[in-house]
Amino acid sequence: MIGRMQIRPQQGPAQPADSVALLPGHQGEITDKRLLRGARTRQIVLCQAVDIASLDGLEAVSFGRLATATGISKAGVQTLFRTKEALQLTAVGYARELFTEAVVAPARLVAHGVARLRALIENWIVYVERPLFAGGCFWVANLADYDSRPGPIRDALKHQQQEWTTLLAAELRHAVTAKEIRELDVELAAFQIDAVLRATNTALRMGDDDAVVRAHRIVDGILVPLPRE
Amino acid sequence: MIGRMQIRPQQGPAQPADSVALLPGHQGEITDKRLLRGARTRQIVLCQAVDIASLDGLEAVSFGRLATATGISKAGVQTLFRTKEALQLTAVGYARELFTEAVVAPARLVAHGVARLRALIENWIVYVERPLFAGGCFWVANLADYDSRPGPIRDALKHQQQEWTTLLAAELRHAVTAKEIRELDVELAAFQIDAVLRATNTALRMGDDDAVVRAHRIVDGILVPLPRE
Lengths: 229, 229
Fold this sequence. Notes:
The structure is a homodimer.
Chain A (H helix, E strand, L loop, with lengths): L3 H4 L9 H5 L5 H30 L6 H8 L3 H8 L2 H24 L6 H16 L8 H9 L5 H26 L8 H20 L5 H12 L7
Helix pairs in contact in A: 3-4, 3-6, 3-8, 4-5, 6-7, 6-9, 7-9, 7-10, 8-9, 9-10, 10-11
């Protein structure tokens, strides 16, 4: 798994765009630099935003708090994201990107079925153990806050959550079809594995040292191997 | 299950004892009325506090917000609870009381083992379906916020969470000892059932109509009956 610090871009300066436009030099080069600087600033803000959201929830992700956290002016942050909801939704999308790179992408290198399922689960546990986000699982932290608040943020979180359980179900189906494990209801098992992982995240956050071993034992109980013929 | 307004217990006095002692007149009667009024005010505030905490988290439980929600002056609320943390901790204790009365107490009327376990699970599902607290499960909502914040609030939430899984484990042990279900690791199964219930709470909040049927099917998969000899 690639560490988050490694995939983070270089932290650039937080100069307002206008001051750049006044500089002399080749126009094309300046535009490229401006775009690059804008992209960097955006990423610095989003890195802070996902950490704040994992610790204190997406409600705490505001222009003011991000300005304090990054040293970029509040107006600068606002220029990049326009509204608080747009900022929150972009942070939700960015969290998904980081999750995909850390948990899903490395598992794609492994064969379908039990092997990939185990890789996904193992990467997920590392994702909350290390953790990728300061407050542990981004979705556990935010679904608890947004599950009672209909709107685009809840929709985005729900959609991402479903993508994850759908992925688990697909690998369970591969495992059943290949007769690697005994027949089971793949949707039910995917829900169950996800529920156990989410509870493991909370247990780990609260210092429960047995959490990881327990999660593996429960998964072993679900993935019962079929004896080879 | 008894409705929330009916099961609310009487609370203790809110006025400092010294000010009561200074009052003229029929000492006993006035003291009783004042005590009663203090207790009522306290309960009105706590009822709002647990709802707010279940929706927006315990951080949102403040003197100002409760004053607005109840119509009681901010100073009045502050006199009752003194500090924000004391108010939050009292709300956590009150949530536990309501939970016990709605979920645990009715199940005590049922025989130990599978019957009581099923009653606990059924009452728990009703507790989040109805729901007892406006935002669904109080602990799902607040553990997600406090799992990364060590302190007395996290300790209280963690302790209550453990009480619940310990209760589930004890009934599972009864069921195994009485040979009602096949042998299993009761702590592991209790963790698993709790994880599924918590995930069911979130699924219900997000409008997943299959959530309850799924929860029952997963529980059925864990509580495998032993054939009678």
